[in-house]
Amino acid sequence: MVTVDHPGRAACEGFVHDVFAARYRADVQSFYPDLLEYRDDERQRAVVGMRQASLGPLFAERYLGMPADEAIGDRFGQAIARDELVEVGNLALENPGDARWVIAATIQFLHEAGYRWVLFTATRVLVNTFQRLGMRPMPLAAARPDSLGPQALQWGDYYRTAPLVCAGPIASGFRKLHRPGATSQPRLDELLAGMTRLARRLRDDDPQREEG
């Protein structure tokens, strides 16, 4: 976990910036407070940002125009507690083909960290990846650049992909990852086990996180 004061923070932010610059001609200057970094043989492969809803406003709430817990509750027909909600963003991949395993590992981490709901803004390609992994994300709103004012200029061509604000239950994705009879994938299994260890270690250090 790369927090704001982590010595590797600048490298992770630089990775996110460079990926979005190459893909969308963007100049991203806003980063999530917590970053999950995925590495392989000392090389950065991916970064995923996270923000706890219980700690303050979420980026996607600017698109929604209302608290995310209320928007999700209306969509799913149940009350949503903000301490069970996490937003992910700053998803940057060295290779877009890695999206499936990166999202799978992130689902594992979020579940083991005690969250029940995830909010994210993504292109339709990434939304489909979440769906294939069993997340059952529901669209809440279109992500429109005019919601950001001048800050939208940082995002280059990103909004040409017609991104959507979506939310879904983390447990549904977790169940599919661990469904009986699923084909064993040793490298993925090792990664998921590592994410479980990381999440549990962080929870032990944070008594405010409760079992999900």
From TrEMBL:
It holds the Pfam family T_hemolysin. It comes from Dyella thiooxydans. InterPro entries: T_hemolysin. This is Thermostable hemolysin.
